[in-house]
Amino acid sequence: MARYFKKMVGTKCYLSPVNPDDFEKYTEWLNDPEISQNLLVNDKIFSLLKEKEILEDMAKNNDTTFTIVDVNTDKPLGNCSLNNVDNINQTATLGIFIGDKEYLSKGYGTEAMELLLDYGFNALNLQNIMLEVFDYNKRAIKAYEKVGCKVIGKRRQAKFFNNKRYDIIFMDILKDEFLNIRE
């Protein structure tokens, strides 16, 4: 059984450093078209070996990537991370997904986002956190808006999926906006 450590804890879930022993679960999630269609890696194929190497590398070299874990069952649900952390300009990009379909649309992603944003703004002292989302991913857009993210622009027809073109929406949140929502 994989071990998890409660780095940031909410009422539904907590964020734990990535455990490479979860490579089979991640491989299942990332190869599931229903999950991967909303991710930037949806055109990639993930083998067990490749995913194991990726998770091992994350565990060794990336201290801003976390497994989202159910607080009551210690079951891994997905992943979230702060990428491209720029300490001088105090910026980062955010990525998140819930891989376990039983946990979709139940508030786990929203809470994980809040925990990750809190970590980014308060522990890492970031000023601006940005993300990208495909305009067909309405569930994610709703969750991002719920935590205070705002649309800052879009790249028109930049996503080709299922023989259709979609916009990539750019959203961000500032430290003051995040802190004011929580007061």
UniProtKB/TrEMBL annotation:
Its EC number is 2.3.1.-. Residues 13-172 form the N-acetyltransferase domain. Pfam families: Acetyltransf_3. InterPro entries: Acyl_CoA_acyltransferase, GNAT_dom. Signal peptide: none annotated. The keyword Acyltransferase applies. Gene3D superfamilies: 3.40.630.30. GO terms for molecular function: acyltransferase activity, transferring groups other than amino-acyl groups. Keywords: Acyltransferase, Transferase. It is an enzyme of class 2 (transferase). This is Acetyltransferase. It comes from Defluviitoga tunisiensis.
